[in-house]
Amino acid sequence: MSGNIRIMQLFKYKAGSTPSAPMLFCAPMAGVTHSAFRRLLADFGGYSAIYTELLASRQMVHEDAGKSPYLKRRAEEGQVIYQLLLTGQDAIPEIMSSVLPLNPAAIDINCGCGGKYVRQAGGGVALFENRQKLEKVIKDVRREYAGTLMLKIRLGHDVPGWREPFLERIRIIEDGGADAITLHPRFAGQHMKRGARHEIFRWLADNTRLPVIANGDILGPATIARNPHYFEKTAGIMVGRMAIICPWLFAAWDNPGLNVDHLKTWLTFYDYLLDDFGDKHALRPLKLFTKYYAQNFAFGHTLYTATRTASTVQSLREYAVRFMSAQPAMVGPPTLPVIY
What we know:
About 45% of the residues lie in helices and about 10% in strands. It contains 16 helices and eight strands. Helix 2 (about 35-45) crosses helix 14 and helix 14 (about 260-295) packs across helix 16 (about 315-325).
């Protein structure tokens, strides 16, 4: 089965779909796409698949998959893609023996993260840069795994003639047996304050036989509508941070009039976090979620300030209830906070 057909069948792609009604993916996000957040997204639905957080392969083999909020999944989550941090020095058979019983919809190799820890370990953008290790990792995974294999990438280094080495790596990915590529069109090391180069999606689609999933600064249907020709040849759309601000985003993609109870949504997520993390470990992910969720409100900075100073989940809950019960003014559409 070709990669393109595999992706279409797996994620319920409909022939003749348009950029305004594509396959929709929720991006892997550190500290966010754990089991509690995936459960919240599942309440709204509308996505084709959702990613786990980037999973450190050497650690995950020691996790209890039935209890870990990073590994466990619920049936209502639907298609869950497990993203792995691989470096070329991994015990792939052992890793696969931990992942495959979880019934992943696909496995994704991260070649796009530029975080210090990930780079120093030899993963993310460092793996993409190292041709030999990139080839080895893909072949090693494919040897153990016959399912859908995906890679999330960036553009490489911002140097003159960057396209040639970039396409060399695309050939490695194709020849290794991958089924799809997700492109975040920024260079390695570029921060979020510089806009993603959406025009690159079309160029990459013309230069690979693999389906291309578009990612980076996509806030919803309006992003695609502004420059639909950039997305005409993509196989799907991946949304990251805006899905934290609006967990109902995928459900509202073709239903913009969707009615949302913001306080109920926040409280539901609060309960889900306590279920999966417990009081002791839920505060950090609750703060991270609320930092983004505050972008829905005209005076959300006051909620964000309370988030920063809260010392317990209970105190943050009390403030959030007071804030949202007062029917605060909304903003529309919300914007992404700048992250450096």
